[in-house]
Amino acid sequence: MRDVVVIGVGMTKFGKFLDRTLQDMGQEAIWKAIEDSGVQARDIQVAYFSNSLAGLITGQEAVRGQIVLRHSGLGGIPVINVENACASGTTAFRGACLEVASGAYDVALAVGVEKLFCGDTARSLRALGTNSEIELAMMGFQFTAYYALQLRKYMKEYGATKELFARIAVKNSYNGSLNPYAQHQKVLTVEEVLNSRPISDPLTLYMCSSMSDGAAAAIVCTRKKSRQFTSGPLINVASCVLKAGLYRKPGDTSIPNTVTLVAREAYEKAGIDPKDVNVAEVHDAMAPVELLRCEELLLCGKGEAIAMFEQGRTQINGDIPVDPSGGLSARGHPVGATGLGQITEIVWQLRGTAGAHQVHNPRVGLTQNSGGRVEEDTAATSVTILKK
Amino acid sequence: MRDVVVIGVGMTKFGKFLDRTLQDMGQEAIWKAIEDSGVQARDIQVAYFSNSLAGLITGQEAVRGQIVLRHSGLGGIPVINVENACASGTTAFRGACLEVASGAYDVALAVGVEKLFCGDTARSLRALGTNSEIELAMMGFQFTAYYALQLRKYMKEYGATKELFARIAVKNSYNGSLNPYAQHQKVLTVEEVLNSRPISDPLTLYMCSSMSDGAAAAIVCTRKKSRQFTSGPLINVASCVLKAGLYRKPGDTSIPNTVTLVAREAYEKAGIDPKDVNVAEVHDAMAPVELLRCEELLLCGKGEAIAMFEQGRTQINGDIPVDPSGGLSARGHPVGATGLGQITEIVWQLRGTAGAHQVHNPRVGLTQNSGGRVEEDTAATSVTILKK
Q1: The complex's ipTM?
Q2: What is the pLDDT of residue B251?
Q3: A130 and chain B: CB distance < 8 Å anywhere?
Q4: Which stretches of A38-181 are DSSP H helices?
C-alpha cells in the first residue's frame, strides 16, 4: 500500500439552510477543497460521495453523487455513492484513501453532503430511524433513548451527574462559539442546559446534536505526487479503520466494544499509542457521550474520563483537547457530512490554521465517527488517525 | 495489485415475491455463495452491499446492508453500502475486488438485493426516477422514452425495424425459458411482442425489463489464498472498470460514448481484444438496446449488430452469445442485484455449469452494467471481464 496524504479540505458552515440544495452545498465544499489542494478538477480521478437520507428527504434516491457533481467539471470518473448512516462521511474518506493507497488512482475526492431541513420535521425524523422494521414497527425506540440508557448506566457505575453532563455541553458550546463553521455559536450556561427541554432523561435539548444541513470534502493523493499540486503542509493518513458492529445473538451477555476494537486496529496500523493522540473529534451525538467515547478510544481508563474533563484536560487549551470544533452538539450533525467535517477540522488543527479554536501544536489527531444501530450495537464505526 | 478470483457465487430466482424481504433474499444469495466458495462466514473480512431503492420502497434508508446481514454471522467487519442505480451491483463487485487486489483484505463479499414489488406500483415507479429534480419536476421524462429515442435514431441510421427489435426480445425470452433463475420463462412470439402494449414507440411491453425482486452475491479472494477454500474452478477478475458519464455542457455537440470508453479501458487492463470475448451479459433494460450495446462494446462495428444478430451469432449456440441468461428483459431487473446477477451468470458460463442455457466452452466473459442518467449521459457504467 502506498502512503496517502490529505492535500485539501473544504466545508460549508453547518446550519439550517432551507434555501440551499445538496448540489449547492456539495459544490461549495468541493471547490474549497480543490482550491485548498492546488489540483484542477480534471486531476481528480475518482470520487466517493456520502449522503444518508436524501432519498426520504428530497426524493433523490439514486445516483445522488452524480446529481450533485454534475456541471462541476468532474465527469467521466468513477463515482461511488456510499452510505453508512452517521458514519457515511468517513466511509467515503476510507474509500478515497483505499483507491490511492492501492495504486488504482493517484488523486481521489471524498465529499459528504446532507440536507435535513426540508420544511417538514416529521419527514426528517422518520428518515433518521435506523432500522425501520425494528425501531419503528416493533419497539417505538429512538436513538436518543439508546444514548440515555448508556448515560444512566455510566452515572450508576462512575458517579457521573447530570450537572457534569451539562458542563460538557457548555464546554462544547464554548468551542463552537469560536468556530465560524459551527451551527450553534452561543455560549451556554449550565443552567440553560439543565433547564432546556427534557429529551430522554438525563438528556436535555441542549446536550443533543440538532438537525443540520452542510457539506465537507477532502482530497487525498499519494505522497509521491502531492508536490505536483501543493507546497503546503501534507497531512498523513496514518490509518482509517471501519467496522460494522458484532451484533449480539441471543445469549451473548458481553461482547467487545466496537469502538475499542476499531480504535485498537487504527492505533496499531498507525504505529502509535493512544497517549500519542494530541487532539480528537469524537462522535458525540449527545455531548456527554464524549466521556464514554474517550474511554472506549482508550484515551483514558474506564471511569477516568470524568477526572480528565474535571481537570480541564479536554478543553482547547488542555493536553488532550476533545471536540475543539464544538463537536456534533455545537458544530452540527449533517449526517452524511459529519465524518468529513471531523476530518476537515483535524486537518486544520494539524496545519495550525484552525483559528480561534486552534489547539496547541498537535502532531497526531483522531476522528471517531459512528452511525446507525442494529439491535444494540453500532452499525458502522470508524476511527481515522491523521499525522502532521 | 494482487490477482483476484471469484470463488463463489449465488443468486435467488428473480421475480415478483411480495412475501419476501430484502434480508430473506439477501441471505439466500449470500449463503449460496458461501456454500459455493467453501469459505465459512467468519472467513469473510469485508462486505459491499448494493441496493438502490429500499429507502423509498421499504422505508429502510440507512445502513441497509447491516440490516440485511444481521444474524448472518457476518458481524464485526467493514460493511460498505454502495449505490449507483442499475449499476449498483457491479459497483459493489468492484469495491470487493479492490479490497482484495489492494491487500486490504483477502476474502470479500459483494451482495446486491432489490425489492421493487411492494404492493404499490406508483411508489415503485416514483422511486425509479433517476433525477427527481429534472425528470419529475422539470421534464416529466422517463427512462423508457430515453431508450426509445436511442432506438429511433438507430432505426433511421441503420435501417433496423421494429420487427427486428421484437425478434431480439423473442431470442431473450427463449434464453430465459432455459434459465430457472429467470423471472419470465415463457417463449414469446414476434407477434406477441409486437402486439403487446405500446410503451414508448418503438418499444412495446414485452421488449422492456419489468419490475423484479431478487438478490445475487459473489465472493472474491486472492488467487494465492483461494486454494485454502476450494478445489473448484477459479474465475479470474481480469478487469472491472466503472465510470460516471461525461455530462454534456452547453455547446457539447458530440462527446465520446461512455460505454465505449469504459470497455476500452476494461479490455486494455485485461490484456484482451474485444474479439476475444466468448460470452456477454449486457445491460439490455429494453431487449433491442442489446444491438447498441454490442456496438458500443466494440463486439462489432457501427451498424453491424443487426447482421450479427440476423446470422444467429448472438444466440446461445452462436460464436458470441449475448444475454444467454435471458438478459434484463427475461431474467428480470432487480436494480441493485442486476450487476451481480450478470457476474453470477458469467461465472457459471465460464465454469460450464450454466445448465440448459450453457454456451459452448467460453474462456472469456464480459458484463456491462449501466445505471441512472444525468442529463443525456449514463450516471454509472461498468464493464467487467472474467476469464477462465
Answers
A1: 0.94
A2: 62
A3: yes
A4: 54-57, 64-69, 88-102, 121-127, 143-158, 162-177
Contact B245 A63 (CB under 8 A): no
A294 labelled catalytic: no
φ, ψ (nearest 5 deg) of residue B125: -70, -40
Is B99 an 8 Å CB contact of chain A?
yes
Q: Which of B184, B240, B300, B333 is catalytic?
A: B333
Question: Does residue A143 register a pLDDT over 60?
Answer: yes
H or E stretch covering B365: strand B364-374
Calpha distance A97→A265 (Å, rounded): 17
CB interface of B with A, residues 149-208, below 8 Å: none
Is-contact A170 A294, C-beta < 8 A?
A: no
Partner residues linked to B135 by β-bridges: none
Our CA-based measurement puts residue B263 at a distance from the nearest CA of chain A, in whole angstroms, of: 13
Question: Are B61 and A52 inside 8 Å of each other by CB?
Answer: yes
Per-residue pLDDT tens over the stretch B40-86: 999 999 999 999 999 888 888 889 999 899 888 888 899 999 999 99
Tell me, yes or no, if A333 is annotated catalytic. yes
pLDDT at residue A127 in the model: 75
Q: What span, in angstroms and rounded, lies between the C-alpha atoms of B66 and A342? A: 24
CA distance B62 to chain A (A): 5
Verify whether the Cβ–Cβ distance A76 to B246 is below 8 Å: yes
Phi first, then psi, for residue B199 (nearest 5°) are: -105, -60
Report pTM. 0.95
pLDDT digits 0-9 by tens, A18-45 = 999 999 999 999 999 999 999 999 999 9
CA angle B8, B10, B12 (to 5 degrees): 180
Average pLDDT over residues B349-375: 95
**A93: helix, coil or strand?**
helix
Report residue B97 CA to chain centroid gap: 17
pLDDT in tens, A219-242: 999 999 999 999 999 999 999 999
- Pairwise CA distance, residues A229 & B129, whole Å: 39
Q: Best residue in B46, B51, B80, B377 to probe A by mutation, most A CBs within 10 Å?
A: B80
For residues B271-301, one letter each, b for 16 or more C-beta atoms within 10 angstroms of the residue's C-beta and e for the rest, the string is ebebeebbbbbbbbbbbbbbbbbbbbbbbbe
Burial A153-192 (b: 16+ CB within 10 A, else e): ebbeebebebebbbbbbbbbbbbbbbbebbbbbeebeeeb
**Nearest Cβ partner of B75 from A75, A130, A245?**
A245
CB spacing of B102 vs A380 below 8 angstroms = no
- Give the residue from chain B lying closest to A375, CA to CA: B70
Interchain CB distance below 8 Å, A62 and B52: yes
pLDDT band at B283, cuts 50/70/90? very high
Residue A109 confidence class, pLDDT cut points 50, 70, 90: very high
- The counts of H helices and E strands in chain B are 14, 11
Averaged pLDDT of chain A:
93
Q: Name the residue of chain B whose CA is nearest to A335's CA.
A: B62
Q: Do B63 and A374 touch (CB under 8 A)?
A: yes
Using the Cβ of A69 and the Cβ atoms of chain B, whether some distance falls under 8 Å is answered with yes
Cβ atoms of A373 and A146 within 8 Å: the answer is yes
Distance from CA of A51 to the nearest CA of B (A): 10
| Cell numbers representing residue A322 in the block | 476533545
Say how many CB pairs under 8 Å bridge A and B: 201
Going by pLDDT thresholds of 50, 70 and 90, the confidence category of residue B253 is: low
Q: Would you state the torsion angle of the CA atoms of residues A203, A205, A207, A212, taken in this order, to the nearest 10 degrees?
A: 130
